[in-house]
Design brief:
330 residues, two-stranded antiparallel sheet, globular, 15% strand, 11 helices, Glycerol-3-phosphate (1)-acyltransferase
């Protein structure tokens, strides 16, 4: 694995400043307990984060996704989304408390039989989802069920990234796999040996393929579809919901049924589109619990880059390859 790039002086200064703000907040949230932390985080989200310019992207995305939605309805969704995001942030010091069993249970797990059946088939399993509610509940549930790895994209700040990784590892899978070529090879190895991998697939990736999402093309990682088709691994959509405060439900849906046509590239595109359709269904069920602030949809620049990539592949005789794909769990 290649060594991480050395940080510039400006990056070190910026990350030190970020850490100087981040860690005192995390220490405070840890001291006051998960319920109080979640409530205060929600207050900060509703009343402070809601007023920041970053929410402009959420407004734009919602107007495009729901053309007939009234302004008051959009405002309610954005404000509740900010409430949820504030809660998620404040809950990070408490990821080790997201139990799925016992008297301290905070996460209700529904559909575990689908996990058991997929694992029993022996061809590996990918648990795929998006940034719903507190998405780390899905990580915690996977770890407590004994699954091997999760795919994630760490924050740019290495100190913050290391701290989040430690919190996630308290209950989540011990192996946290970064995106990129090395990560894809490790995922391939786990699946080939009948293990399970969890990943979030709802963010734009420059190396993805265009697949419909709310009626518009969105650059989407092709890795889950490629691996499922190549290895016969099961592809299970999962959704997290915030029920009340710091209590949650994680619902595992049956594996996506897909009949390959024999055209590898067409099949990858079709299965990726089906996965996006499932994610869209989950978003529509509770739109205020999805992360609308991400620039999810394809831009003219994305289309130009895709055309350039297709030309290069045509010259090299390559189709859609899983090595180029990544996904995120943070």
């Amino acid at each position: 694995m290649s060594e991480p790039k050395a940080l510039s002086a400006l990056q070190r200064l910026r990350y030190a400043a970020e850490s100087a703000v981040f860690f005192p907040f995390m220490g405070f949230f840890q001291l006051i307990g998960i319920d109080a932390a979640s409530a205060i985080g929600g207050f900060i989200g509703r009343h402070i984060f809601y007023r920041l310019p970053v929410t402009d992207t959420a407004w734009q995305n919602l107007r495009a996704a729901y053309p007939g939605m009234k302004r008051a309805e959009i405002e309610a969704i954005v404000r509740e989304m900010c409430d949820n995001l504030g809660r998620v942030t404040a809950e990070y010091p408490h990821l080790g408390k997201l139990y799925i069993d016992g008297p301290k249970r905070r996460v209700e797990l529904v559909g575990a039989e689908h996990l058991d059946a997929a694992m029993a088939a022996g061809k590996g399993m990918m648990v795929v989802s998006g940034h719903f509610a507190n998405w780390e509940t899905m990580t915690a549930a996977a770890g407590q069920r004994g699954y091997e790895g999760l795919v994630y994209r760490p924050p740019n700040n290495p100190t913050v990234a290391a701290w989040i990784s430690r919190q996630r590892g308290k209950l989540g899978p011990k192996e946290q796999i970064g995106k990129g070529v090395h990560g894809t090879r490790r995922i391939f190895s786990l699946l080939r040996h009948g293990q399970a991998v969890a990943m979030l697939v709802d963010q734009k990736t420059a190396e993805g393929v265009p697949a419909p999402f709310f009626g518009r093309d969105a650059m989407t990682t092709a890795a889950p579809a490629s691996l499922a088709l190549k290895l016969g691994a099961a592809l299970l959509p999962v959704r997290a919901e915030r029920l009340k405060g710091a209590h949650f439900r994680v619902t595992i849906h049956p594996p996506i049924a897909f009949q390959p046509s024999g055209d590898a590239e067409r099949d990858v595109l079709a299965l990726t589109a089906e996965l996006n359709r499932r994610i869209e269904e989950m978003v529509r069920a509770r739109p205020s619990q999805w992360l609308w602030i991400h620039r999810r949809w394809t831009t003219p620049r994305d289309i130009a880059k895709l055309e350039k990539k297709k030309k290069a592949q045509a010259l090299g005789g390559k189709g859609v390859g899983v090595e180029r794909e990544g996904s995120s769990l943070s």
